[in-house]
Structures are given as structure tokens and as C-alpha cells.
Design a protein that fits this description.
Muramoyl-pentapeptide Carboxypeptidase, domain 2; 2 domains; alpha+beta; four-stranded antiparallel beta sheet; disordered N terminus; about 350 residues; two-stranded antiparallel sheet
Length: about 350
């Protein structure tokens, strides 16, 4: 019998309500999280998409997701009947309160509607080209919704893009990293503390989920939900392997490793991890994650949605054991459980 409490909209079709009741779902860990965790998903997903479809198409997906996010954000957070001055003041205030960035919006031409929006959002590593495609879309969505007309937004400069212009010619910064942001390295997460002095190193879970589920919507429309889930799973795998190399001790015994992983995931407010079962002969493992960052508090839609987590756990297990794992979520907030449960099996050689 169909669960009468199931909402009709799956998470591959974004609606604001599918962000969930974060406060109720994350009672211990709270409604904030480190910016590092947000950037880890954003940049590994960008890497995964760029390898598959090219950086230009990947940028388009992030821009389209940002536009969808900006539209829904404007509808649910702003008062769209405000005058221009009131609206821009509210936009600046709200974007700062949500720790997205200190946004300075100034309307340049009231006849054409041309606007300038400058995000002081915190340093990443240097990049040869503007990389904030999601933010481009976010501004488009907000301005389109307020003005009821189509805007075209492009990022003209990025505070850390690493180029200086002298006498009309561009001189390459000799401190520029050789690896672009569409090829993930841990260093490209950037100096968050140094770049976000006023906003700090934390941000709301709402902003993370807004990016995550608008991207899922955009990718599902383009490729279908199964392929979209694969992209998130692959990004999670890359994130898990890099997370393990840079934040975990891979040389300790299993019990100590799990204890360290539990502590780190709780510290980063990703979730409360427990190992429920482990078969030392086959390597099969069952893990649960309480107050999971991706889904705790979501409405029930009779589906599992933590595909990024599946890849993340698989990457961690491979980094520690040296064996490839296939990890699948078997219980989730979105299918009516109040904990996420994952089954991991070693892949056949």
C-alpha cells in the first residue's frame, strides 16, 4: 500500500520544500556546516562533469542550477514587491546572513535594468578564468524573478584569478597554480579562513542542499535521473579518496580508523557514523549515518537520495583497504527511515 505521507515530487525535480526540515533532522549537528564540505562537493562534481562533457558544458550546468536556485531563493526569501533600493538592500543583507557572500548590488542603468553584482565570497586557489558559474546563475535567477525579465550575467573578474593588468596587457601571475579548477586537487579548495574573514568558515546546510538538489534537477533533465545519480556518485568517490588522503590516518588498525572517521565526520558536521557490521573474510560492511548532511529532515518521497554519500564512502573504503567497493544506500530519510544505512561490498577483481 502506498505511503499516504509520500510527497508527489521526487528529489530529481527541485522544489523548495524538498530541502527539508533541516533543524528537525539535525538536532545534534545543527543547521550549519563547514564551507570546506560545500566546496569539496562543488569542485569534485565540476571535475567529474568536465571529464565527461567538457568544461564549457559543465559550466552551463552549474549556471543553470544557480539560476534555478536563485529563482526559488528569491521567491521564498525576498519580498518581490519592494522597490529597487529596498530589494537590493534586502538582497545584500540576506546573502550575507546566509553566508553566501557579501554581495554589493548596484543598479547601473534604471532604464535598461543593467546591474552590477559583486560577490566578496572568500578566496579559493588562483584560476586563469572566472569560475563562479553557479553564482552567475544565482544572480540571473534572483534578478529575473524580481524584474520579471531575462538577464544575462557573466563574471568579469574573480578576486583570486591570478592575473594582473598593466598598461593594457595582461601579465601572468608567476604564483599561478598550473591545475585549473575543473581538475580537482585538494589545494583548489583554497584558503577558506583567509578568504572569508568576516563570514567565517561555516555556512548554512540550506545553501549546500540548494546547490546539490538544483544540480540534481538540471542533470536529471539533461541525462535522466540514473545518469545524474552516477555523476554525484563519481564525484563523491573522488571526494572520499581525497578526503582520506588529506584528513585521515590510513596506517592504523580498523577499529582506530573507524573511530577517527567517526570523529572527523562529526567535527565536519557531515553526519554521525556507526559501523553496524563488518565481515573480515569478505570485506562486506554495513554503516549507518545519523543526521546525514544530504538528507536528514527531507520529506518522504519513497526513494534513496544519498548517491554522493555512496561514492564518498566507497572512496574512503578503497583508500583504507586498497580494494574497490560498491556502496549502496539501503535506508534513507527520503524513504521513511530516520537514519541513512549503507551496504558496501568489495567489487570482484
Amino acid at each position: 500500500m502506498r505511503n499516504v505521507f509520500i510527497k508527489g515530487v521526487p528529489h530529481s525535480q527541485f522544489v523548495w520544500e524538498n530541502i527539508g526540515d533541516i533543524e528537525a533532522g539535525r538536532g545534534t549537528l545543527g543547521d550549519s556546516m563547514p564551507v570546506l564540505v560545500y566546496r569539496l562537493m562543488q569542485h569534485t562534481l565540476g571535475h567529474t562533469l568536465s571529464e565527461s562533457v567538457g568544461s564549457g558544458k559543465s559550466d552551463d550546468f552549474f549556471r543553470n542550477a544557480g539560476s534555478l536556485a536563485g529563482t526559488e531563493y528569491a521567491k521564498h526569501v525576498f519580498t518581490l514587491s519592494d522597490g529597487v533600493d529596498e530589494f537590493t538592500e534586502a538582497a545584500q543583507r540576506n546573502l550575507m546572513e546566509f553566508n553566501i557572500g557579501i554581495d554589493h548590488i548596484s543598479v547601473v542603468d534604471r532604464n535598461t535594468g543593467c546591474a552590477v553584482s559583486a560577490f566578496d565570497r572568500g578566496a579559493g586557489a588562483t584560476a586563469e578564468r572566472p569560475i563562479c558559474k553557479y553564482e552567475e546563475g544565482l544572480v540571473i535567477g534572483i534578478m529575473d524573478t524580481y524584474a520579471n525579465s531575462r538577464f544575462t550575467v557573466s563574471e568579469n573578474a574573480y578576486p583570486d584569478e591570478g592575473n594582473t593588468t598593466t598598461g593594457g596587457s595582461t601579465m601572468r601571475n608567476v604564483f599561478m597554480k598550473d591545475i585549473p579548477h575543473n581538475q580537482f586537487t585538494w589545494e583548489n579548495i583554497g584558503d577558506i579562513e583567509g578568504g572569508r574573514g568576516e563570514l567565517g568558515v561555516a555556512m548554512p546546510v540550506l545553501v549546500y542542499r540548494l546547490m546539490q538538489y538544483t544540480m540534481l534537477d538540471v542533470l536529471s533533465k539533461e541525462f535522466g535521473s540514473n545518469k545524474a545519480n552516477d555523476y554525484f556518485r563519481d564525484a563523491g568517490y573522488l571526494a572520499g579518496t581525497q578526503f582520506s588522503k588529506h584528513m585521515l590516518n590510513l596506517e592504523v588498525g580498523l577499529d582506530e580508523f573507524i573511530a577517527n572517521l567517526q570523529a572527523k565526520l562529526k567535527l565536519l558536521r557531515i553526519g554521525i557514523l556507526r559501523m553496524e557490521a563488518f565481515d573480515r573474510e569478505t570485506g562486506e560492511i554495513v554503516l549507518s549515518v545519523g543526521e546525514d548532511l544530504d538528507c536528514s529532515g527531507l520529506p518522504v518521497t519513497d526513494e534513496t537520495v544519498c548517491n554522493y554519500d555512496e561514492g564518498f564512502i566507497a572512496g574512503i573504503l578503497e583508500a583504507y583497504t586498497g580494494k574497490r567497493y560498491d556502496v549502496r544506500e539501503i535506508d534513507c530519510w527520503a524513504n521513511g527511515d530516520r537514519v541513512c544505512r549503507f551496504n558496501g561490498k568489495v567489487k570482484a577483481a
